Hints:
Number of strands: 12
Order of helices and strands: EEEHEEEHEHEEEHHHHEHEH
Low-confidence stretches: none
Bound molecules: zinc ion
Radius of gyration: 20 Å
Helix content: 25-40%
Structural class: alpha/beta
Mean pLDDT: 95
Largest sheet: 5 strands, mixed
Amino acid sequence: MTESAVLAIDIGGTKIAAAVVDSEGTVVADQLRPTAVSTDAETVFAGVESAVRALLGSLASTMDRIRVGISSAGPIDGPAGTISPVNIGAWRGFPISARVHAVIAEQYDKDAIRVALAGDGHCFALGEHWLGAGRDVDSMIGMVLSTGVGGGAVINNRLFTGVTGNAVHLGHISVNAWGPRCVCGGHGCTEMYARGPALVAAAKQRGWAGGDDARALTAAARAGDEIALRVIDHGMRALAAGIATTATELDVSVVVLGGGVSKAGAVIFDPLRRHLLDFAVLDYVKDLELRPAILETAGLLGAAALAFSQE
Ligand SMILES: [Zn+2]
């Protein structure tokens, strides 16, 4: 057991993962809990609490401070330490950082505990930058394509948080100013065209009846189904515009793409790369590189990286 280990917590809509991670990125011990389906905030927190308690014994009692990193589905308020995950209805403005701090303070000196909070897109980027597809670069954008579109950026080896911890909100930047109204209130957001369920809905509208999820749709595209290929191409054009905009604004030349839909591979990456040529046109982003993510648990490892980044 190394003295420089941290506690990482990854809170999602279906599961809560927690781990003790050392400075090499090795998971020393871990715990997994289902996210309780409940309208009661305490019932949901009980899963986090029990996972944290189960891991405290794995943290060396000789450490002079306990560093914790929390990754959560958004929206979050980083400075306030509160979260309101869209997919966890029981938590609105839930003070996750203070609550986790209190659980650990039952066993450790409260002044020696540091808790940092970041959104899951940010932690994904941190994880892939530390140990994954972006470990050889100083700056990168991390992007998750699944039931939603999330993102984060590491600039000059530091997480770019923004004022409230929501920077690089790639899913809700507009790629069509005249597009339909999005759930966020904006118009023509990338997520409306590119997220898994949007691709499936578009295919069904055109008569595709091959299934109900993006996995079935990408499999159909791989088998040459014309509707599947067309709607994916359409969605990836929107996403390419969003990626190029973000890379152009941040002056970053590497983008790491992960998330369930991205795992389909070439049927997603090929159209994305092709459309990127249309949008990443300024000299400094012309060679924009789109890399597949490597890590299975980028969010959890990113939470660990976040924990290590604290004094
Ligand atoms: Zn939106």
